[in-house]
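ERR on first pass: missing label on line 2. Operator R.T. fixed the label and resubmitted. Corrected input:
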Amino acid sequence: MADSQFEGGCEADSRPPFLCLNNAIVKRSGKTILHVGSFELAEGESMALLGPNGAGKSTFIKLITREILPLYQDEPPVLFRGNARATLEDVKKSLGIVSSTMQDQITVHMPAIEVVAGGLYGSLGVPKRVNASEDDYARCRKTMATLGVESIADRDVMTLSTGQARRVLFARALVHDPDVVVLDEPCTGLDPQGMHYVRRSMRAIAQSGRAILLVTHYAEDIIPEIERLLLIKDGSVHADGSKEELLCDEAMSSLFDVPMSVAEVTPGHYSLTSEY
Ligand SMILES: Nc1ncnc2c1ncn2[C@@H]1O[C@H](COP(=O)(O)OP(=O)(O)OP(=O)(O)O)[C@@H](O)[C@H]1O
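pass 2 clean. output:
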């Protein structure tokens, strides 16, 4: 799926980190649902977040996407590329986002390509005030082709299978050529074939030089290109380290509070199981 549109990527350089969190606290209904003491993500660095249901993973991701703001502190708790005042616009330009719940938000009939074109405007479809150009649509088709869904560009998105729609959402996330792709449970609800294509797409994105921030419950989603894991439990960082260090029986059992077994099925490909 290599495509020149996705070429580029990170150089080892002196730019500020892509993201710094420092004493970032999110409260809901009077309760702290996430507290991150200190966290740094370098430009171009990929990472997977793992943790039990309700641990705070999506909240962590929403701090990055600026859908959630942390409590005010004298020292800014979130620095986006060194900037404490990054706008939603700045963040949207840099990120492509796919979540399994995004699909539920598509409730109107429109051609799949319109959903993809929405990625150029940070919306789910093309806003009414906008006239997308021929070039825009050509770009959408090209992006869809890299994900193997060009042939369904004109199909009503509401009639697509879950797997097809997920790949259309991938195309939407990539069409504006973001530096970082955020994937919140991208394989949830997919059959093995759908998972295969999504994971293959993830690898192609990573190999094109884009960073991936992945939230997942599946070790199989942690593609070889992702080397760092962030384990979130009870609203805080349980562990932060390399895949070699943390993708093991001990760390996973401690994270999920049940005996877990990690196997490297083939080099760089893992599975996570428990006996019952
Ligand atoms: N608006 C809200 N009001 C109260 N509690 C909230 C609110 N939003 C989130 N929470 C709580 O914050 C906690 C963290 O939620 P979050 O969605 O980040 O968890 P998660 O790790 O992504 O879970 P999952 O794996 O189930 O998707 C949960 O206990 C959730 O119930």
